[in-house]
Design brief:
InterPro entries: CA_dom (IPR001148), CA_dom_sf (IPR036398), Carbonic_anhydrase_a-class (IPR023561). The chain is an alpha+beta fold. Helix content is 12%, strand content 28%. The strands form three sheets. Strands 4, 5, 6, 7, 8, 10, 11, 12, 13 and 14 form a ten-stranded mixed beta sheet that branches. β7 and β8 form a beta hairpin. The longest helix is centred in the first third of the chain and has 10 residues. The two termini are 22 Å apart.
C-alpha cells in the first residue's frame, strides 16, 4: 500500500512513493494555437510548441513497482474546506470544461480572507488555486490522462495551482517551479459522485465551444474530493498536457478514485468541441518516462 502524509494541515514526515524525474527548466508563453486530440493532431503539437517534444512531458503511466520511496513533509491543503469565491464561472473552451475561480477583492483580503493553497512534499513553495478542469472519453474504460497501475479511469480532474511568487499563471508557466496540478480520477459507479453534482448539473449551460456561464452556487475544494484517501499519492516533475506543454508542473496524483455515475459522465459527453463534434477523448497520449 502507498503510504504518505497528505492532510489539510500538518507537517509530519512519513513515507511517500515518488517518481523522481529530471527537472528541465523552461520558459514559454501561452499562445492561441488551436489544437486537436486525434493521433495525427497530437503529432503536430510540437510544430507549433517546441516544448511538446520536451524531455519531461505529461501525462505518464504510473507504475507502482518503479516508484521510489522517500521521506518528506506532508502536503498541506490550506483553505480547502472554505467555499470558493463567488461567482464561479463554467467554461467550455472546446477542449475541456473548466471552472474559473475569481480572485479576492482588496476588501476581502483586508478582512483576512485568502485563496486556498497547498505546500509541502516536493512542492517548491506555496501554490494558490487557479482553476479546475476535466478530461474524459467516449468509453468508460478511457478518459483519464494518466494511467495508474495499468488502469485508465473514466475521467480525470485537474486542480491547477500557481506558485505564489508569480503574479499570474502565464508568468508562472515560464518557470520550472511555476505550477502545481493535483490529479484526481473518476471511476464509473452506480452512485453519483456527490462532490461533482454542483458542476455536472450545470454542464447544459455550456453545450458548445466558447460558451460560458456564471454558476449560481459555490463549493469547497474538499467537497470535490470527499472520500478520497489523501494519504496516498504520487508526485513527479512534468508538464502541461496541452499546448504549450510548458515543463513547469509539479504533479500530485491521487490513485484512490472518486465515483461518477453513468448519468453524470453522459452530461460531459453531450458537450461539443471547436469542430462541432462531440467533446470526448480529450486526453493526451502517454509520454516517455525516465526514472532516476
Amino acid at each position: 500500500m502507498l503510504k504518505c502524509v497528505n492532510r489539510y494541515t500538518g507537517s509530519l514526515q512519513q513515507l511517500l512513493l515518488i517518481f523522481i524525474i529530471i527537472n528541465f527548466t523552461t520558459k514559454q508563453a501561452v499562445s492561441g494555437y488551436r489544437f486537436g486530440y486525434s493521433e495525427s493532431n497530437q503529432k503536430r503539437w510540437a510544430r507549433h510548441h517546441g516544448y511538446c517534444a520536451g524531455k519531461t512531458q505529461s501525462p505518464i503511466a504510473v507504475n507502482p513497482a518503479r516508484a521510489i520511496s522517500l521521506h518528506m513533509p506532508a502536503v498541506d491543503m490550506i483553505g480547502y474546506h472554505n467555499l470558493l469565491p463567488y461567482p464561479l464561472k463554467i467554461i467550455n473552451n472546446g477542449h475541456t470544461v473548466s471552472i474559473a475561480i475569481p480572485k479576492l477583492s482588496e476588501e476581502q483580503l483586508g478582512k483576512g480572507e485568502f485563496m486556498p493553497y497547498t505546500s509541502g512534499a516536493k512542492l517548491p513553495g506555496e501554490f494558490e488555486v487557479e482553476s479546475i478542469h476535466f478530461h474524459w472519453g467516449d468509453k468508460n474504460n478511457r478518459g483519464a490522462e494518466h494511467v495508474v497501475n495499468d488502469i485508465r479511469y473514466t475521467m480525470e480532474m485537474h486542480i491547477v495551482h500557481r506558485n505564489r511568487k508569480y503574479s499570474n499563471l502565464t508568468e508562472a508557466l515560464g518557470y520550472a517551479d511555476g505550477v502545481a496540478v493535483m490529479g484526481f480520477f473518476y471511476n464509473l459507479d452506480e452512485d453519483e459522485g456527490l462532490g461533482l453534482t454542483a458542476i455536472s448539473r450545470h454542464l447544459h449551460l455550456v453545450p458548445e465551444a466558447h460558451n460560458e456561464a456564471i454558476l449560481n452556487v459555490t463549493f469547497s475544494l474538499s467537497s470535490l474530493i470527499s472520500g478520497v484517501d489523501v494519504d496516498k499519492f504520487y508526485t513527479y516533475k512534468g508538464s502541461l498536457t496541452t499546448p504549450p506543454c510548458s515543463e513547469a508542473v509539479t504533479w500530485i496524483l491521487y490513485p484512490d478514485p472518486i465515483s461518477i455515475s453513468a448519468k453524470q459522465i453522459s452530461r460531459f459527453r453531450q458537450l461539443y468541441d471547436v469542430e462541432e463534434g462531440a467533446l470526448v477523448d480529450n486526453f493526451r497520449q502517454l509520454q516517455p518516462l525516465d526514472v532516476y
